[in-house]
Design brief:
By secondary structure, this protein is of the alpha+beta class. The protein is built from 18 helices and 23 strands. The two termini are 24 Å apart. Homodimer.
């Protein structure tokens, strides 16, 4: 492992601390009785406090020093004075440990007394301090010049998501996002618990990936010697509980879909699903309006929130627009009653990419998603989806070609999906069989037939309404974030590129190619000045690493740097 100069120095300090008999990672409890926030909120001159946190800055001036300590609730100024800390002849705790062996980023514990500085800053005068954890890597802290300009900020998205622990330390606003995320889930729980619904847990490993149209992750259970899938939805298990006699159940579930990643999709995501007996999708629309209004108030103290350049109003009621009407309004095509060939022709006229595996449901979904969805910025219920799009949804009571389903669109994206649930076991079997035909046609997202779920329906499921709300997208809205990675502590990332270590000879070759697009191979070899054996070995290894290539052309051989 290659260490930077600062990392080497910190390790040397670690050794010196141990030589002084100081354990840089003590095991004993540290009796914290205050935080930066509680001190400021309930400040009383002369009070004794015990606090802990990370050393974030300091200004050493001889035998005195002002520093900043950061804990879970913010920062507070602390004052180190050599004679307050070292009351006897031995001044080494200040002179050696504090001044020379502590670093920015170290976690320390402080026993002190509150006082106010001449400029009115609430401060802790340090009476004693302990090292609780030595930081061996320096924090990427921004620097501010005399004009207030900030430099070296830790703002590269890939680094921030990959090293979220650093991001949380140096970018305080990031922490606020995740505190709001907890407020949002707590608000939902309060709303449903007050109505008497039961929070439950259902399996993540499932023998059949049901409840949604999506490509699953596949794994294998060795002891049972069977394939298992990470769930794509928890819907079918929650409905089994309604069959079993619960009137209302909900779950915050981690779902997994083996699909692409972008600013609004992560292969692992959180969905809240609710199922309530003796209700329909009209009741669910009313209830969802009440829920989102409460969430907005609990999270941001207002039903109006700003998302990018848009102000979104979550106060009820929300517009309700049938999906076929939306398509007609925004494309000019009336697709109601069209067969698969006619829909494919419309999609092609609209410039959409379609293929033979796409049935009626997917074609309508593609048309709406690409040509209509983005128009719905304010909360809007898109309703009454064609039957082919909704294999788990009850047939519309007024039009048998449609279903009693809605999707809630906000800021041009789907936030929730809900149905009057299909509870006719014969109809449900037929819908599953239609999905099977799509699968045989090549649609790898089509639903499996879940025979046990069909058996459950045959015992009788009461009329039920269900909804799934994407928690990650909801948090994005409520915190004004445009990327799902910003609201996940640890989003899925591509494998981290390993640093390539080169020999001195290989470095010579690559340095010569650093500022030029290419060099004739003979010229490169002459400039490198390597022996034939070292040249052959170096170029062969550079080619194997994929960072060096030789191209043969009519005018000779040319060397290039790759990447």
């Amino acid at each position: 492992m290659q260490l930077s100069e600062q990392e080497i120095v910190r390790r040397e300090k670690l050794t010196k601390l141990r030589e002084l008999g100081i354990n840089p990672y003590p095991a004993a409890l540290f009796p914290v009785d205050a935080t930066s926030k509680s001190i400021k909120d309930d400040f009383s001159e002369g009070n004794q406090v015990v606090i802990s946190g990370r050393l974030m800055s300091r200004r050493i001036q001889g035998k005195a020093s002002f520093a900043e300590l950061q804990d879970s609730e913010g920062r507070i100024q602390v004052y180190f004075n050599r004679d307050e800390i070292c009351t006897g002849e031995d001044k080494s705790l200040y002179n050696d440990v504090y001044k020379k062996l502590l670093d920015i980023g170290d976690i320390i514990g402080i026993e002190g007394e509150l006082f106010t500085t001449q400029v009115g800053e609430k401060t802790v005068m340090v009476k004693n301090f302990s090292l609780l954890s030595k930081a061996l890597r320096p924090l990427p802290l921004p620097k501010v010049d005399a004009d207030g300009n900030s430099y070296d900020e830790f703002n590269d998205p890939e680094l921030r998501y990959r090293q979220r622990y650093v991001d949380l330390v140096v970018n305080p606003k990031v922490k606020e996002t995740f505190i709001k995320r907890t407020k949002i889930t707590n608000s939902i729980r309060e709303f449903y618990n007050e109505k008497g619904y039961l929070e439950v847990e259902t399996p993540i490993l499932q023998p059949i990936p049901g409840g949604a149209i999506a490509r699953p992750f596949l794994t294998h259970h060795n002891a049972l010697n069977i394939p298992l899938y990470l769930r794509i939805a928890n819907e079918l298990y929650l409905k089994r509980l309604i069959v079993g006699g619960f009137d209302g159940v909900y779950e915050f579930s981690k779902d997994f879909r083996n699909e692409g990643m972008d600013r609004t999709h992560n292969p692992e995501f959180t969905v809240m699903e609710l199922y309530v007996a003796y209700k329909d999708y009209n009741w669910m629309m009313d209830t969802t309006e009440q829920l989102l209004e409460k969430i907005a108030l609990d999270t941001n103290s207002s039903t109006k929130i700003t998302v990018g350049e848009n102000e979104i109003e979550f106060k009820a009621p929300y517009a309700r627009v049938p999906i076929l009407e939306a398509i007609k309004t925004h494309t000019g095509f009336d697709v109601a009653g069209m067969n698969e060939a006619e829909l494919r022709e419309v999609a092609q006229k609209l410039g959409l990419e379609v293929d033979d595996t796409m049935g009626i449901g997917k074609l309508i979904d593609e048309i709406f998603g690409e040509k209509c969805e983005h128009f719905y910025v304010q909360p809007t219920f898109i309703t009454d989806y064609p039957k082919e799009m909704s294999p788990l949804t009850k047939e519309h009571r007024e039009n048998p070609a449609l279903t009693e389903r809605f999707e809630l669109m906000v800021n041009g994206k789907e936030l929730a999906n809900a149905y009057s649930e299909l509870n006719d076991p014969i109809d449900q079997r037929e819908r599953f069989e239609e999905q099977l035909k799509l699968s045989e046609k090549g649609d790898d997202e089509a639903m499996f037939i879940d025979q046990d779920f069909l058996r459950a329906l045959e015992y009788g499921m009461p009329p039920t309404s269900g909804i799934g709300i994407g928690i990650d997208r909801l948090v994005m809205l409520m915190t004004n974030n445009s990327s799902i990675q910003e609201v996940l502590f640890f989003p899925q990332m591509r494998p981290e590129k390993k640093a390539i270590e080169l020999t001195d000879e290989e470095k010579v070759i690559m340095d010569l190619l650093k500022t030029v697009e290419e060099l004739p191979l003979v010229e490169l070899k002459n400039k490198a000045g390597l022996s034939g054996k070292k040249w052959d070995k170096s170029t062969k290894n550079l080619s194997k690493l994929g960072i060096f290539v030789v191209e043969k052309r009519d005018d000779g051989l040319f060397a290039k740097k790759v990447g």
